[in-house]
Amino acid sequence: MASPHWSAGRVSAQPILFWLSREAELLASRHVDRRRAIFCRRDVELLAALTREDACGLVWDVSHAMPARAPGVDAEVLNAMRSMPLLLRADWNPSAIGIVSAAASVRDDVRISHADSDDFIRELDRLVGNPVERGAEQAVIRRLLPEVPAAVADIVLVAIVTAKRRTSVSELATRCGSSKGALLYRLGAVKAASPGALLGRLTAQHAAWWRGVLGWSAKRTAVELGYSVARGSVALDHFVRNHAGTGLRAMTDPACFWSLLERSADLFRPSLANAHSTSRM
After folding, report:
1. pLDDT in tens, 74-117
2. 160-211 confidence digits (pLDDT tens)
3. Dist CA 155 CA 173 (whole Å)
4. Is 59 helix (H, G, I), strand (E, B) or coil?
5. Model-wide pTM > 0.85
6. How far apart are CA 207 and CA 80, in angstroms?
């Protein structure tokens, strides 16, 4: 993936484009300098704004809260974007899943948040305040989704984003609009790893990104993943050793992220997935 295109001296002055539901616009307006924000209410406004040479990012709400769009508009927006970061706010309806998958494939810098306010604002603050610090979700999506059986691609996509914070199978099921039993059945039907094993490995994958690719400390990585400041790094080290066979110290090597990503593909290979199936969150 290409490196972000910002220059440090210009980031604070460059405008960011927003195409959001009213609810998300209210949230965003409290966290972005209004002098930098260009809120587009219609697709024609957005397509016109995307021609601006100074625009440094697009924040796009693909949740069900957005009004219906004309056929072909989503692809037109993706094609019209120049080299700029794209933050997608998704609630995992079928349309959102399609847009996230397509964007991760064709754009160079895609960030993804859940529709809830905490995750959306966390990603928005990162985009606005320190855009170089992008997460691992696009790299993981690009590598793993081609390995995933189509019948469970939606589960895996939601899990990749959900695992940016350590979470439970129950929460994953809720985000998928399903139940724990249904997730277990669907993954088992294609002989993939269990939901708990999937979340555990993906959380370790994000930890390896923060540690090795971005060079974060163990403590900062633990806090980012939802652990407490006090002794959170110890708990995270135990967690990643259990789910990935690699500790936080080894994850300081950027190559660890990529080698772990190759091994993560085993979660969808029947002969190897069974070895992970008993792991639980």
Report:
1. 999 998 887 889 999 999 999 999 999 999 999 989 999 999 99
2. 999 999 999 999 999 999 999 999 999 999 999 999 999 999 999 999 999 9
3. 9
4. strand
5. yes
6. 33
Cα 138 from Cα 16, distance rounded (Å): 20
Model confidence over 232-242: pLDDT tens digits?
999 999 999 99
For 255, residues 6+ apart whose C-beta sits below 8 A from its C-beta are 212
Q: How far apart are CA 86 and CA 102, in angstroms?
A: 12
Q: Please report the DSSP string for 19-42 in residue order.
A: E--HHHHHHHHTTS-TTTEEE--S
What is the distance between the alpha carbons of residues 247 and 213, in angstroms, rounded to a whole number? 15
Query: CB–CB of 61/85 below 8 Å?
Result: no
Instruction: Say which amino acid occupies 244.
Output: A
Helix or strand (DSSP H, E) at 89: strand 86-90
Contacts of residue 125, Cβ cutoff 8 Å, sequence gap at least 6: 31
> Do 196 and 169 touch, CB atoms closer than 8 A?
yes
